[in-house]
């Protein structure tokens, strides 16, 4: 038997011991002895789908609701929030359940974490992450996102003097929404339309309202709850530039920053 064969044989036992994050930004000592390990032969021919830990994508707010329900939630309540545990046979029989939970990381990455849920007399009594890095990441994800204001140019969103969203405007608006949905657990949106001072004030007020409505309508078409979005127009009343002593095409160009739609994104209270 060659040296390589001996090395492979010596390493033929593999511990599938839970989630691991190879990143210096999330570290912690490991105290996971009480969680069960699975011991298998490391031969590729014997490693199959059961040993790939695939986590469930559970909304952070549902995990937070578990914490708020300690001493109150039943096993049925937990299943309604998280679904069945890894081993469904423990339901109604065991006082300790395990879940594999995918917690989001920057980009499209995620960390799969083992989560233990314990009961006392069928009532939720404790919650434990197997790895400290999972607990730290969950704490970070549980922090409320700060309100964010996005200002989009009317000249980009709409054609001149109308309130129909342009293709590039719809694309940019959708990007803003997708970004916000990744940051906020329960998204609340306020849309405000603004115009420049060219033209009659009454007409500008109407135009700003219609443009704000067009943006709100598009967001609702893409799944935003109508009860979580509001819109209004403020016409020319809140300029960001004044452009004195200019006329004609130069004035229109100078006043462009005033022609805008502002979108306030925040956590719903």
Architecture blueprint of SSEs:
Blueprint (H helix, E strand, L loop, with lengths): L2 H8 L2 E4 L21 E4 L18 H9 L6 H8 L13 E9 L5 E11 L2 E7 L2 H11 L5 E6 H4 L9 H17 L3 E8 L6 H21 L7 E5 L14 H7 L5 E8 L2
Parallel strand pairs: 7-8
Antiparallel strand pairs: 1-2, 3-4, 4-5, 6-9, 7-9
Descriptive notes:
α7 (201-221) links the parallel β7 and β8. The chain folds into 2 domains: 12-142, no CATH class; 148-267, OmpA-like domain (60s Ribosomal Protein L30, Chain: A, 2-Layer Sandwich). The strands form 3 sheets. A 4-stranded mixed β-sheet has the order 6-9-7-8. It has a 3-stranded antiparallel β-sheet with strand order 3-4-5. Strands 1-2 form a two-stranded antiparallel ribbon. 32% of the residues lie in helices and 23% in strands. With 269 residues, it is α+β, with helices and mostly antiparallel strands. Pfam families: OmpA (PF00691). Residues 145-269 form the OmpA-like domain. This is Outer membrane protein OmpA-like peptidoglycan-associated protein.
């Amino acid at each position: 038997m060659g040296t390589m064969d001996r090395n492979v044989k010596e390493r033929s036992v593999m511990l599938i011991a839970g989630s691991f994050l190879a990143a210096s930004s999330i570290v912690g000592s490991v105290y996971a002895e009480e969680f069960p390990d699975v011991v298998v032969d490391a031969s590729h021919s014997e490693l199959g789908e059961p040993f790939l830990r695939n986590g469930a994508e559970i909304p952070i707010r549902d995990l937070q609701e578990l914490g708020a329900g300690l001493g109150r939630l039943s096993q049925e309540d937990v299943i309604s929030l998280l679904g069945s545990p890894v081993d469904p046979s423990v339901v109604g029989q065991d006082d300790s359940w395990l879940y594999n939970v995918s917690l989001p990381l920057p980009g499209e990455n995620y960390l799969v974490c083992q989560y233990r849920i314990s009961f006392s007399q069928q009532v939720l009594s404790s919650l434990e992450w197997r790895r400290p890095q999972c607990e730290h990441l969950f704490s970070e994800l549980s922090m409320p996102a700060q309100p964010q204001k996005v200002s989009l140019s009317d000249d980009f969103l709409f054609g001149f003097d109308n309130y129909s969203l342009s293709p590039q405007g719809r694309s940019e608006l959708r990007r803003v929404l997708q970004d916000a949905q990744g940051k906020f657990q329960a998204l609340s949106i306020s849309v405000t339309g603004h115009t420049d001072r060219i033209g009659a004030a009454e007409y500008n007020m109407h135009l700003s309202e219609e443009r704000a409505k067009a943006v709100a309508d598009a967001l609702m078409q893409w799944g935003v709850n109508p009860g979580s979005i509001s819109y209004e127009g403020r016409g020319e009343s809140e300029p960001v530039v004044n452009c004195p002593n200019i006329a004609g095409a130069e004035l229109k160009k100078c006043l462009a920053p005033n022609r805008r739609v502002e979108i306030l994104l925040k956590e719903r209270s």
